[in-house]
Structure formats: C-alpha cells, structure tokens
Amino acid sequence: MVTVRKADPALMDKAAKPSRELSPAAKEREQQQRQFKRLIGQLKGPEQVFAVRLDSTEKPITIRQRLLRVAVEANVEIAVRKHGDGFLVGLLTPERRTNRGRRAQSGKTRG
Predict the structure, then answer these.
(1) Which pTM was predicted?
(2) What is the dihedral of CA 17, 23, 29, 34, to 10 degrees?
(3) Tens digit of each residue's pLDDT, the chain (111 residues)
(4) Neighbour order of strands in the sheet with 49-53
(5) Is the dihedral angle over the CA atoms 82, 83, 85, 90 positive or is it negative?
(6) In sequence order, which ranges of the chain are alpha helices (DSSP H)?
(7) d(CA 108, CA 6)
(8) Half-sphere exposure of 68 (CA within 13 A, CB side)
C-alpha cells in the first residue's frame, strides 16, 4: 500500500543539486573556447590572419573542430589551413574556399 503524508513545501522548491567543480580538463576547454571566441571576434577583414600553434597534447582535428564550432556560434565563416605545427585562421573568402568533393563548374550543363 502507498503511504501519503504531509511534507515541507521547501523540499519542493529546493534548487537542484549544486553543480560540481569542473575538472581541470573541462576548465582548460572552457578557457580555450573563450580564447577562440576572442580570436574570431578580432577577424574584421581578409587581411587579418591568426596562427594557432598546437602543443604535443592537442589533437589537430579536435582543435580544428572547436574553431569551426565557435565560428558557427559567432555566425562567422572562417577558413582553417594547416601550417607548421598548427593552423592559420582567417575569414573565408572566395579564394580561400575549397572545392573539395565538388566538380569544377563548366559552361555546359549535362542533359
């Protein structure tokens, strides 16, 4: 049988468990994200390019994806190119756009 009894209303209004302290790795990711937001916010024209150097613990694909994710959140199109032990980051221009996976456009259309 189910037991029903009165309870303190404060129990219902109590906030969720206090959030745990972030791990050092999570803090580092948050700091990196803020750094990338500042970098992308400083891109005002195609003449501005930033070099992002990776240390030995970072995976290039992860950093590239984080850069692109921050750019999407900021509604900015960026180009990311390999350079030395890191990347070059700049605004996306027609010259910097890749045609990877797409055929070159020709004047003729297939019918």
Answers:
(1) 0.70
(2) 60
(3) 677 788 888 777 766 666 678 899 999 999 999 999 999 999 999 999 999 999 888 999 999 999 999 999 999 999 999 998 899 999 999 888 887 777 766 665 555
(4) 49-53, 86-91, 78-83
(5) negative
(6) 9-13, 24-41, 60-73
(7) 79
(8) 10
